[in-house]
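SAMPLE LOG
Freezer: B-3
Tube label: C17
Construct: single chain, 422 aa
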Amino acid sequence: MRRRLLALVCVSASLAGGCGLIPQDGGGERSTVTVWLMKDSASQDFLRRFTEGFEREHPGLALDIRIQEWTGIGEKVQDALKGDGTDGPDVIEVGNTQVPQYAEGGQLQDLTLESMRDWGIRDWLPGLAEPGQYLSQQFGIPWYAANRVVIYRKDLFEQAGAAEPPRTREEWLSATEKLDAGGSQGIYLAGQDWYTLAGFIWDEGGELATQDGEGGSWTGALHSEAALRGMDFYQELQALGDGPADADEEHPPQAGVFAKGGVAQIVAVPGLAQSIVRENPGLKGKVGFFPVPGKKAGKPGAVFTGGSDLVVPKNAGERDGALAVVDALAGEKWNTDLARTMNYVPNKTSLAKAVAGEEGAAAMAAGAAQGRATPGTPRWAAVEADNPIKEYMTKVLTGADAKSEARRASDRVTDLLDVNTR
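STRUCTURE (predicted):
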């Protein structure tokens, strides 16, 4: 049963009796806007502050925020979008790469006009904004972002004579080679960390898949010369450690590997450092962060940007109220508040200064400016479920010919993205 955070979001005592039209203190009525947010996306304290502030600034509206679990959320959202809107959500937080699969059936509000006129679409992080589009219309409004950085041992870098974090790929390889000595791994990079590979491919000008014109078919692109250069760099970097060729970063969890000591670097979201220090308190104060280096100094490497967008269902009962909620959550005041509270990256490049004082978040924000997302097709989930990219990576890292394996993986991606295979 959906859990209502009445203690958090129904700050008026009159809300305890239920939702709907809520009497105001002045004798009028307030309309209730139902908002679905995902578990752990925002702290309880943030939700309390936001609700109090929003309802103060919008006296005709009351918020009913309902926290959702990620497990099974896809089917639950689809059911809500197909319903009659009664007691359904007016605003939904969705994963940024999920937007196309919800927009495909025409069940989301087109927010292109508001995005261009009111919400600063040109300044949004590309890794949130681009997957929020479908057929050139903006359905997903960027809320917050998180992406991978390099988590490193400051003490090991200093011992190797690398006082400053590397800023280019060449500097990164050079430092990692020095660190990969004396029983230590220069970097722990699992062989199937395809999100990290994607960043290297994008840096080279390649793609995971390409589309034949707007609305056209999708084709796997791992065999392009640019994509192959990305795989070459991955192979060179991965060899400077003992990461397994046939497993991803969760098998075993790389935080645990790093915590045991003897590993100079991993590529992960900054929040993983908390788990590392919990497992090995002796590393407190020795862990640092820097953006994944790019090909040139001054421009970090491309990274996969995760995070969330906000969408408004076509069947929303409170459309105007929903737009007011999106405007507030995605606006500078509350977006920077959320970023500081949760160590996220704000939704606009111009707001990166909001997290400048936190090393991990600042490194993340620098990388997010070059962020990308997976191909904007509703069928990309099928690729991730089967994931021929992982198999391709393992084969190349264990000696197979990269060109032939890339072509084979591209063909499989094409098959999975084919609309006729649904």
